[in-house]
Amino acid sequence: MKRIFLLASALTLSACQTAAPGGSEAPAVSPVLATADAADPHSYARPLEARVTHVALDLAFDFAAKSVGGTATLDIDRQANAREIVLDSDGYRVSAVTDAATGAPLAFAYGADHPALGRPLTIQLAPATRKIRIAYTARDAEALQWLEPSQTAGKRQPFLLSQGQAILNRSWIPTQDSPGIRQTWEARITVPKALEVVMSAPDRRELGSTATTRTVGFRMDKAVAPYLIAIAIGDIRFQSLGARTGVWAEPATLPAAAKELEDTEKMVAAAERLFGPYRWGRYDMIVLPPSFPFGGMENPVMTFLTPTFIAGDKSLVSLIAHELAHSWSGNLATNATWADFWLNEGTTTYATTRIVEEVYGRKVAAQQIALGIDSLNGELKALPAADTRLAIDLKGRSPDDGLTEIAYEKGAAFLRMIESNVGRERFDPFLRKWFDDNAFRPVTSAMFLAAVRRDLIRGDAALEQRMQLERWVYEPGIPANAVAADPQAFAEVDAAVAAYASGTLPTAAWPRWTTDERLRFLNRLPREQGRARLDALDRAFGLDRIGNNEVLFAWLSLAVANRYDPAVPALERFVLAQGRRKFVRPLFLALEKDESWGRPIARRLYPRARPLYHPLVTGELDKLFGR
To answer: pTM higher than 0.90, yes or no?
Structure first.
């Protein structure tokens, strides 16, 4: 089947455009792509007939009932013959739909429910309808996690956080929940008066208060993918980090978080030197309670962060570089469907190491690339061949099935291969142009390959053949032209791994090693270890008590693989103290797989840990434990 690389086939239902910061054009109504590869199998929406362009929320959050209710007013663009609009829904209950201009009621109906996608909400439109208002409530929304005070750092107030990626926002926001249907939005949020509220929008203003509540307004004037609408409510405070950066956190966490994040302003400046102007205004972050399921979530102007990155020595702040890089790759130019998730995460992973190199030097960047390649090689062994393609087929599957190192590390390896073939002097302007050309727009793999051919290959048949573009994107595995890791990046560590086989421990080197070097050492050790060897490792390096969560996870993974009983108390503390998916999921999977030793531990710990975990994590682990 011949692939057609035609950017001109993109369709927008409105031709109005306005100038964007940085010199690029930002559409007032972001285009919807009409190519077959941009059709989203994870949304019921039919955006080429009628699509949402703006969402206005007016919501009150009830912590006692753990529910949210109010209205969503949607601006819509429609074809002249469109008689209905289809939204995504997964649990919210609609009480009424009206034409926002006339107040006239509009008929609506839910379709059949799908366990992964929810159900369509179809609303009939009057001939002149351009704005609809939906009155609704959402209880037990999968995107929202309601925390008791005991589950927070301060232990004083409840907390709420949202996680919309990939398709969870349809559980509390009535809209077309597809990354290819970008929308501007605003919100009027009412919360208990003692609590603060932040959202992923640059314009924030106090609107008023009563004796028991306060109302805060937000506005995002740039069209974003709907999964990037985010909210957090709790006992949080703000600390400035620089002219356009700052951090929110619970008071108990704020000082350590601010210290760990003090290089953020430098990272923003480095990213701008590489990728062009930062187009979002401020870059703020919020450090959430430990139940947050990801390391970070790149919500525009308000990155959500796990507290597990706080190590006290800035050794894990590449996480910040990664989330910041999403301000260009992912938030600016966004995968039109989850099949092309690598366009978000692979490009961002590549950009992360470039930012790290600018701020912390080439050696650190080379080490992180090598660790990424190690992780990718492990994933390649574990996944079915079909799932090692960059453009993955997710029809009939959860979009979360694409949340693997293939999207992140194979995607980054693909870009490093292109860079090595054309040189940074050509690749850097190309990448910047890619972001400029596609700012605030959805993109596909075919569009990216078309840009590479147009701007870099330029008809050079020999270069085209060397790059193997189609092989990288549409076929499984890693092509032979991948750029190898720098063999000198971990030369000392790899020598220590070799010496370990003869019983020598790197006791002199360990104290001065970086987190990346410690991770390389632990992860490169043979997976089968005797009790005496593990005892010696723990005695030498205090691994059960180490404060760096990445290193602790690497140690606990090795301990679980070898049924190391002395590490069980540390394992218990770890899975009961935080809910980061990257950590808890593989540990519980490994425990459950070991029927005689690990499974009893998993069955004892999971019921205690489950209340801390986000629904995104419990949804996976409940299946594992047959709940």
So the answer is: yes
